[in-house]
Design a protein that fits this description.
The protein is α+β, with helices and mostly antiparallel strands and about 625 residues long. It is about 45% helix and about 15% strand. InterPro entries: ANF_lig-bd_rcpt, GPCR_3, GPCR_3_9-Cys_dom, GPCR_3_9-Cys_sf, GPCR_3_C, GPCR_3_CS, GPCR_3_mtglu_rcpt, mGluR.
Amino acid sequence: MDVEGKREEVLKAARRLNLTSYFHWVASDGWGKQSHLVEGLQEVAEGAITVELTSDVVKGFDTYMSRLTPETNTRNPWFKEYWEKFFGCHLSKIPGSDLSCGPDLRITKEAGYQQDPKVQFVVDAVYSFAHALSHLQQSQCPDTATVCDAMSNYDGGDFYREYLLNVSFKGVVGSQVKFDEVGDGPARYTIYNYRKIPGTSVYNYSVVGSWYSRLDLNLSEVSWANDTTTVPTSVCSHPCQVGEIKIVQQGDTCCWICTPCKDWEMMVEESLCLDCGPGRWPYDNKSSCYDLPHQYMRWTSVFALVPVGISCLGIVLTLTVIGIFGRHDDTPIVKASGRELSYMLLCGILVCYLNTFLLLARPGAVICALQRFGVGFGFSMIYGALLTKTNRISRIFDSASRSARRPGFISPKSQVVITCSLVSVQVVATVVWLVIETPGTRFEYPTREQVILKCRIKDSSFLLSLIYNMFLITTCTVYAVKTRKIPENFNESKFIGFTMYTTCIIWLAFVPIYFGTGNSYEVQITTLCVAISLSASVALFCLYSPKIYIIVFHPDKNVRKLTMNSATYKKSHPVSSAASINHGSEGVKLQTVPGTPSRTATEGGSQSMENEALLLAPSTLTFSDA
């Protein structure tokens, strides 16, 4: 800071605004070490760093100044003004004023005079011209000791370049005086720190460094505002932190704004961020990027543990049912259940439970192919077998009510062939699908920090692959509704109906949940696994728990003797007779009682009874002790 006449005003303004310790002052040689500039403003100026040209006191100049008065001064036109300002008086008399300058005033140290440090340079400047003129006279006027015409007409620019810049001599205080090619003398500066003397209330300037070709500064000796030793920072812009780039201000390369790169960007240079790209993330130092870990369902996740627990329980129960059926394979209730279809249905249930482990496994080409095959295959085995059963029951009772002709394709072998045909449709469709849309994996990026590893299949495509199973479920449900009023002894159709109604509810709830959770792969996969396991569990419990209950807890009811009693199929000509009908190798004795549906001989009564017995023999029935 060095604005002539404004230094004191700036310091006063800082004090007036209560900013005494807010600013750290750095001043040029215009301030230097002058005490009168900070008089009364010591607290504001505390800690100031000032510089001054290194100089010595010119001997004899103080004596000259002490003898100089307005009366003796003859050549300095500003001396009178200086005199009035120095003593604070007026040389001209003003009526009624006591500020007239007295005749005894002298410029001495006692009066507050202090030699200006630039006096040495003024004297050296005068001598520089004198030496240059002397050299010019000797060069241009060698034959005379005075000024000649050549010297008088010499070009000023040439004089400056050829003579003045080339002078070299010992100055008034003994220092070397010379100039460089641009006219600057040797730069010598003394650096001062304005501070309070420790233990006192007195302030002074202390030398803390110098400059002569290089900086020599003792920072430990510098005292800043409030007598602190912590070096303040004063910069246009601080260095940017890691992950920040410089946005340089237009027209000022020394000032910039630090702008952070986005979380997914790296720094390619100090002023440019670059996107790492999908699936990649920058290191902490933003120097380069690395591949993000792939996310997929982990076996230790709660989203995996729940469906795995359900599936494991279902697998154990399914294998238990298969074991019980295998052990009691020759008992009437197992035979009447249609052993072949029952085992196919149980296998389908088992496949559905096993699908959970495929859906939770790390996606890969083989796993993705097995997922697409397993889900549809398991469902088609369950609902294909159920459709075959309900269709058989419906055809037998429809035939019994309309004609005496025995319906076709009701033997166990035929039922197995029909079921396999229904399952093969799903198998062929899945194979075609696998050929058209090759199984594989893909990456999904719900956020910049997530990389989800998934099978290369759209959610819509996966549900479209289940359309055939939806058709089987719908058709099976229709047959379950049609056969809901058959005689109560043929009540497996009622359990099938309950199974299908519950399955429809599960699927109607599953579809919107599956699509609605697409933003969370864990919830979506868990929903799919639970829906598949629930569908299998409904079929397992509704269809097999009554049979297992009789086999295990009421083996006395697992006999051939049965009664058929219902008012639903009651005819206008009841009969009381007994019929013994053989189907294959199994003989079933059917005893009719009053109210048992039958037909007259003219209506083909014996054939109707045979149809009902055909229904009982390879399929479902209710045993009693009657």
